[in-house]
Amino acid sequence: MSESPDLNAISNDLFAVRKEKLALLRQAGEDPFRANWEQTHVAMDCPGLLPEGVEEGPEVSVAGRIVALRVMGKASFVKLLDRSGRIQCYLTRDALGERYDGHFKRLVDLGDFVGVRGRLFRTKTGEVTVRATSYALVSKALRPPPEKFHGLADPEQVYRQRYLDLVSNAESRERLLARSRIIEAIRRFLWSRDFVEVETPALHGVAGGAAARPFVTHFNALDCDFALRIALELHLKRCLVGGLDRVFEIGRVFRNEGLSRKHNPEFTMLEAYQAYTDYRGMMELVRSLVQHVCREVLGTMSVPRAEGGTIELGGEWREVRYKDIVAERTGDPAWFSRTKEEKLAWCRANGLPEPRADWEDHEVTNEVFSKLVEPGLIQPTFVTHIPRQLCPLAKVTEADPDTIDVFELCINGQEIAPAYSEQNDPLEQRRQLEIQAGAETHRIDEDFLLALEHGMPPAGGLGIGVDRLVILLTGAANIRDTILFPTLRPETTP
From 37, 74, 113, 481, which residue has the greatest number of CB atoms within 10 Å? Predict the structure, then answer.
């Protein structure tokens, strides 16, 4: 290797220092970005290969990012982070010769990716470690890590540079890995029940299946507008028409609405539809599904709350009618006989932000439900028979035509899953959609109604907000902690 300048004198800019180290490597004929390394084991494998009382274990070949680096005169310790966790490596001048001083100590930095080969041993403190007989630099990090991987202090940086958060924050890393395991457990459960997983379009000619504002884009090839889907529902019901009796999809949906602790405009939904059942069948399905996921991912039915206490997900879950729980919370058994003006007066007297003047009577009541009732439903609760105006896609309750055969599953103060007996009468479905659309009848999905006219079997349908389920099971503070790359305002160019 040719004589090199004093790296400390190049610049106080660590980026420039690391670029110079890269240049030195290339001058010596070594390009770390063209290197590779064969892993025979990952970090989590190694402790099991060295039982207690055994001084030396087998040879392993590991690789990962350097997240801790303690360089000494004749020996150094590094900790590598791979997909399974951290493993310590011990590098010495005796084992590596000139490569230890001339290469490792001089050119390797915190954050670099290296491969290490050697036998396992246990240090005096009992930590399983790889005693390096060879190593290679396989990717150079030109930017230094944040505060030596002690974590990101700026919450904005956590979300904007999630890749650094994953490296420096074990809690974030484990939560997002748990998300993957939760989705895997959902899939396995539904497959075990003979559900077929499908993929439906994300671009819709008409945004249907929910009351939400869509994102609209223009498709140049067809010279027409499309909306990003706000729900998965209507295409999955077309599958029921086509004879797929049990069908589900886990997919991204998009709603052009606000950002909050509970809302991200792009989020993940599970929707499942099963022929020859109804909303009560969906109760059993969602309870069994959530309990299965808890067993598989958490190994327990008790979920701790950040605010204290636990949520018990085992056993049977409470069931209560919407009208009963609203009357209970307001302390007014005659609530549903009151006029809208009386309900508005109650809201003012009880410190609720006054609903908009143009809201309908049922919307005022539902604001009371969302602000006062739902936040208090910590333990799993099925709230059933909601007002018919709130969902045009469900069947009306035969015994009470003012309500529909629907439940909302509420846990930890928020809705986790709505489900209902699906409306399969095409004429009644058209009537309800026309009421919802009002003058904007162009917003009705005529192709969906045409499909219903060909006949859809009786069915129950279920939707679960996957991000909210992850919040529940991992104790995340907000929805952005459960999404790998949440929506953020684009950074402005200086």
Answer: 481
